[in-house]
Design brief:
alpha/beta, 8 strands, about 5% strand
Length: about 425
């Protein structure tokens, strides 16, 4: 059978926790920032991206120059308006306008990096966007490879590391866009002399390998939820569409980068979990480290370090009330009072944090990612002691994720699935009620 791959959104730009809303008219400019260091870094980033775009031989689209001029001034409303117009003609998006094939390649990628960074800064609270970026950047050794998946996990790091273009202090790649050949070309233009970046032949093989596997699983009734695979009865062509299929191919391409760059440490900030990675992952402060060898188990030391890191990180945000014995009902009550009723009486955390939905979601998403790793370990452990350790770690991490953002889908549904696996239907019902 032949295969036809038709991704609905090839780039998956905003696949994430947050479904960024283009700031909904929220205004920002360099003058609105409190930190001169942040402004200096962002200005340097915009200049670097503009130089990268200007050096590209890709065709110029009218509006590029004014887009970068607005970005240089920190004029977020103008940047956002220009990008929304571009997006209505870009092939990576579903749109009503006429597709402009010039909206590909390095110039377009540079535009997206600038918009994504400024959007994440505009949506979030400056204090916590900066904290988020610095916690991740400072945790990654120089010369490593970093996969950034969610909008903040990709763009805040892109904008705030010293130089994404130069891979300083580390190489930054998003796993979400690897199935887009133009994105691979863009990454190759930055890092191709130092990293192995999948070739066109690699991409074609990954597309084919995935399609053959999906066809087999279609026959066996083993497709994942949301994985759209069909066979045209007339042509016999296998057709695969949608986000799940794209991420399956992205996973295969990420594996090539991991395997072919064996001299580099790798770290990942998850958007969607990539199944092959789980046996190699361990917690690494806010994100995950992708070890070179399968991780036999997560020790008491690793779990305690994770516990202490997150407890210290979030206490200034939500207060010091959450501990190992805090019940699910107490977390639900806190979420209702602080987040839904906006009642801060007796609240000992930071109002700036709980009053910014974007900041709450991005920290909660990272905690949910680690909870998901613990849950996977609990489900796959053959050692009773480790299984119990992972169950406790999963429970605590999900409770922290919910306290950080009681409306987070990742925290709610991840925790509910875990609680049901533990026959804790009462607690699962309490958590499900939090989404209403």
């Amino acid at each position: 059978m032949k295969t036809a791959f038709k991704p609905v959104i090839l780039l998956l730009f905003g696949i994430l926790l947050i479904a960024s809303g283009c700031s909904k008219g929220k205004s920002t400019s360099w003058k609105s920032f409190k930190s001169p260091e942040v402004v200096s870094q962002l200005k340097s980033f915009v200049s670097e991206k503009e130089a990268q775009a200007n050096a590209s031989t890709n065709a110029v689209v009218p509006g590029y120059a004014s887009f970068f001029a607005a970005a240089q001034k920190g004029d977020w409303l103008a940047v956002n308006h220009a990008f929304k117009d571009f997006r209505n003609h870009a092939g990576q998006y579903e749109h009503s306008g006429k597709t402009d094939e010039r909206l590909r390649g390095t110039k377009w990628q540079a535009v997206m990096e600038v918009w994504g960074t400024l959007d994440s800064m505009a949506e979030g609270n400056e204090k916590y966007s900066t904290l988020y970026a610095n916690e991740i950047i400072n945790s990654i050794p120089s010369g490593s490879v970093y996969f950034g998946g969610t909008d903040p996990g990709r763009f805040l790091i892109t904008g705030m590391e010293k130089s994404q273009v130069n891979g300083d202090p580390f190489f930054l790649i998003t796993q979400n866009a690897l199935a887009d050949s133009t994105y691979l070309d863009y990454v190759r233009s930055m890092y191709g002399d130092r990293l192995y970046i999948p070739t066109s032949a690699d991409s074609q093989k990954c597309f084919q390998d995935y399609s053959e596997d999906a066809q087999k699983r279609l026959k066996e009734g083993q497709l994942k939820p949301g994985e759209n695979v069909s066979v045209d009865p007339q042509s016999g062509r296998v057709q695969v569409t949608g986000q799940i299929a794209v991420m399956e191919i992205n996973a295969l391409l990420a594996k090539i980068i991991f395997d072919q760059n064996s001299n580099y440490d790798c770290y990942i900030e998850q958007s969607f979990p990539l199944d092959w990675m789980y046996p190699y992952l361990e917690p690494h402060e806010m994100i995950l480290k992708l070890d070179r060898q399968r991780v036999a188990g997560l020790s008491d030391t690793i779990v305690q370090q994770d516990h202490d890191y997150w407890t210290n990180l979030i206490q200034p945000m939500i207060g010091d009330w959450l501990n190992d014995s805090t019940s699910v009902q107490e977390i639900a009550d806190f979420g209702k009072k602080v987040f839904r009723q906006h009642d801060l009486s007796g609240f000992t955390g930071d109002p700036q944090f709980v009053q910014n939905d974007y900041s709450c979601k991005m920290f909660s998403k990272e905690r949910s990612n680690i909870a998901g790793l613990f849950a996977w370990r609990a489900a796959h452990s053959t050692n009773d002691a480790e299984r119990e350790r992972m169950i406790r770690a999963t429970d605590f991490a999900y409770r922290q994720a919910l306290a950080l953002c009681p409306s987070s889908p990742e925290a709610i549904y991840g925790y509910v699935n875990f609680l049901q696996s533990q026959n804790r239907s009462g607690d699962a019902a309490i958590v499900l009620e939090m989404k209403k």
